[in-house]
Specification:
This protein has 346 residues and is an alpha/beta fold. It is built from seven helices and 18 strands. It has two domains: 113 residues, 2-Layer Sandwich (Alpha-Beta Plaits); 173 residues, FAD/NAD(P)-binding domain, CATH 3.50.50. The protein is globular, with a radius of gyration of 22 Å.
């Protein structure tokens, strides 16, 4: 198994509830990743990428580049003493930049493989981790390794990444702190996330009183300034947004938080997803508005948001004020490097 990050499980293990049953992703995935990690006939190659493939069906030679981890994988027990002692803190990519991690880190305590990794771009070389490690695992002189694997078949499962809607200047993403994407918001709902499963406004840490979900950000949009795969329907964003709205209602009752959900069209294709939509509309106290958001502005004193949008059912321009947070249901795109991988695999 070739994995380009430090752990297997992909986006699934980073997401909390899985629609439509809203089961815990960790409850589903942790036993599976543990089984894979312990299986004698499965070898995991983390921090690795495919550089070349030769041969033919049934007899391929795959050239792998494994990035330096700077930690001895054979000795590391995942005790995390090095992580707790590291003095360096940098933005945590796994939490979408909403928290900090150390220069030596693991994405979460149950990750597979359970091995620490040093980010050499952030490491200051102070030697604290090396001095405290009881297994003498730290290898500052570690280097990338290139090796060949002989395999009979290749399965491509490269996953996805979330589109960052910086092209949508009218939404203020990256400028207004309380405008975030669905994956960033989902990390707030996760028990291992940056806010310990407590949804709050990034600007001041307060619980939201009015929250707006905006569908189809980076999808079904043919404008030339929107980059990437933006013309198609993302298919899962409607259900993913509904899941986040339902999880929000689980945390906050109706008299505490108003939930508004805007959409172009609701496309809940899949097993039990139409019933999931019906439950969201009828039983969860979520206000659905069919329309398109045209502009988001911020009150610089309170960081509350002002929304201007079209209600396409009524044919009217409406305005929403004192919105605590806006969650942009951004489209999911092919992972970075998938085009290059496709060329390698021919």
């Amino acid at each position: 198994m070739i994995e380009k990050t430090v752990n297997i499980g992909g986006n699934y293990v980073a997401i909390y509830k899985i629609f439509p049953a809203l089961e815990c992703s960790a409850c589903v995935m942790t036993p599976l990743t543990s089984f894979v990690g312990k299986h004698p006939n499965i070898t995991i190659h983390p921090l690795s990428t495919v550089e070349k493939v030769t041969g033919k069906k049934g007899n391929f030679t795959v050239t792998i580049r494994k990035k330096a981890r700077y930690v001895n994988e054979e000795k590391c027990t995942g005790c995390q003493l090095c992580i707790r002692s590291c003095p360096v803190e940098v933005p945590n990519e796994y939490d979408k930049g909403l928290s900090l991690r150390k220069a030596i880190y693991m994405n979460f305590p149950q990750q597979i493989p359970l091995i620490a990794t040093i980010d050499r771009d952030s490491c200051i070389g102070c030697g604290t981790c090396a001095s405290i490690c009881p297994q003498d695992c730290i290898m500052y002189d570690d280097e990338d390794k290139v090796y060949d694997l002989n395999v009979g078949s290749i399965i491509v499962a490269t996953g996805f990444e979330e589109y960052r809607p910086l092209d949508y200047g009218e939404y203020g993403y990256g400028i207004y702190p309380n405008v975030i994407t669905s994956m960033e918001y989902d990390r707030q709902t996760h028990p291992t996330g940056p806010t310990d499963s407590h949804m709050v406004r990034p600007s001041d840490g307060k619980e939201p009183e009015r929250i707006l979900f905006v569908n189809c950000v980076g999808s079904r949009d043919v404008r030339e300034n929107i980059s990437g795969y933006s013309a198609h329907c993302n298919r899962v964003c409607c259900a993913f947004g509904l899941k986040l709205a339902q999880v929000t209602r689980m945390h906050f009752p109706k008299d505490h938080c108003e939930i508004i959900y805007t959409y172009m069209d609701m496309r809940t294709a899949g097993k039990a997803l139409e019933e999931f939509l019906w439950d969201s509309e009828k039983n969860r106290g979520i206000n659905f508005i069919r329309g398109r958001v045209s502009e988001i502005q911020e009150n610089p004193d309170t960081h509350d948001l002002y929304i201007k949008m079209e209600d396409t059912d009524a044919g009217e321009i409406i305005e929403l004020d004192k919105i605590s947070m806006v969650v942009l249901n951004s489209s999911f795109r092919p992972s970075e490097g998938v085009k290059e991988l496709a060329k390698i695999l021919k």
